[in-house]
Design goal:
The chain has about 100 residues and is α+β, with helices and mostly antiparallel strands. It has 3 helices and 8 strands.
Length: about 100
């Protein structure tokens, strides 16, 4: 009976912990992100597609950046501003008016 329970636990864990990290010995839950925590070791961040912080101890949700001075996750303003490049103008008159207002 103990062998059956042990096999069941191993099979269950392998089916749930199906994301293998870069060190080949660490597995994370589905929906977690593998983050390097030492030169050769990995850990699991509880956010999907997370941002791994440079201190190798913390992580932030997707779309955020690590502020290591305050130890918080912040909005990624740079990427938000770069997405403004996708704005479309209706015609050249509106575009010229917009730019003249910015310059003046």
């Amino acid at each position: 009976m103990k062998v059956f329970i042990s096999m069941f636990i191993v099979i269950f864990m392998e089916s749930v912990l199906n994301k293998q990290c870069g060190d080949t010995s660490t597995f994370c839950w589905d929906g977690d992100t593998c983050c390097q925590i030492y030169d050769t070791d990995y850990g699991c961040c509880p956010y999907e597609n997370a941002v791994c912080c440079s201190d190798k101890k913390h992580c932030c949700p997707q779309g955020k950046i690590c502020n290591m001075e305050l130890l918080i996750c912040e909005r990624d303003i740079v990427n938000e501003i770069s997405s403004l490049n996708h704005l479309a103008f209706l015609n050249d008159e509106i575009k010229n008016l917009f730019w003249s207002l910015l310059i003046n």
